[in-house]
């Protein structure tokens, strides 16, 4: 067993997005520009509706996938594919923007609280101009694996023989929400070349003899196993892994392509009203 060490700690920076929403960004910052195949990770956590209620009115995306996981509160979603979703606590949404989607994401409070993650996953060149797609699943549809001292929600990929609800074939993304009791252990065989990171959002953990405090993201180094032990107050974290694409990344605002010319095309298409090329149907429940 070769335990994957911590390669890098990525601090979260406060960023204002949309119509004035405060998010905490740990991938997609000057300290960690991207983490192939991941482009961005935003964590939103607020008990103050004034910080998020203005939401994210209509805006475009091209060339990648947005993966949103709500922990508390809910998010109303509408897009140019004709989908209308209401992502509630514990639910997950996977939106393949690909050739182009315009959508709105409007947070709604539940007892004031709004908490969750949005991850951007890159698409390979061959899929950047493919048709968009959408998957949304409510909390009750997500498999849970209960082990000694651990509860694992399997959002995407496989864990302990259970398959997550989200199917993400291009980069084989695995996305787990892990809750550990005090001092409990969590082990997962996860070899190279998979990029992997852990983001602790409750409690603290020890990972390869280093301690990882709350609201910190750790990028894992090479090895074949992830080994985590919870601190004295237990822990809750996301563990996300994916296969790197190894392609050039040119990212400007809401567009992520392989070349500068393709980005210029995206802006030209958006200005000319040609960004949305395909409508698609919704799957999930
Ligand atoms: Fe968006």
Short description:
With 285 residues, this protein is mainly beta.
Would you give an account of this structure?
The chain is mainly beta. It has a single domain, classed as Sandwich (Jelly Rolls). Helix content is 4%, strand content 54%. It contains one helix and 25 strands. It has one helix at residues 260-271, and strands spanning 6-10, 13-17, 21-27, 38-46, 56-61, 64-72, 74-79, 84-87, 92-96, 101-108, 114-122, 133-137, 144-147, 150-156, 158-159, 162-163, 174-180, 185-189, 195-207, 210-212, 216-220, 225-242, 250-252, 255-257, 282-284. Strands 1, 13, 14, 17, 18, 19, 20, 21 and 22 form a nine-stranded antiparallel β-sheet that branches. The chain has an eight-stranded mixed β-sheet with strand order 2-3-4-11-6-9-12-25, with no helix packed on it. The termini are far apart. The model has no long low-confidence stretch (mean pLDDT 93). Bound molecules: fe (iii) ion (FE). Fe (iii) ion (FE) is lined by residues 56, 59, 61, 66, 103, 105.
Structural class: mainly beta
Total tally of structural domains: 1
Order of helices and strands: EEEEEEEEEEEEEEEEEEEEEEEEHE
Name the beta content range.
over 45%
CATH homologous group name: Jelly Rolls
User: Distance between the terminal alpha carbons, to the nearest Å?
Assistant: 39 Å
- At CATH level 3, the topology is Jelly Rolls
> What profile does the largest beta sheet have?
9 strands, antiparallel
Cofactors, ions, other ligands: fe (iii) ion
Total beta strands: 25
Number of separate helices: 1
How large is the radius of gyration? 18 Å
Mean pLDDT: 93
CATH architecture: Sandwich
